[in-house]
Amino acid sequence: MRSSGTFEWTARRGPLVKYQCDPHAGTGMRGVLVVE
Prior knowledge:
This protein is mainly beta. The protein has strands at 16-20, 30-34. It is flat.
């Protein structure tokens, strides 16, 4: 994806969804979404 690109995704699970940037996971690019 280009730096100016967009991405859309719908969370189907919750309340917490863990995610990471696979190409940059070694540098700590990961987080948690809180689904309400």
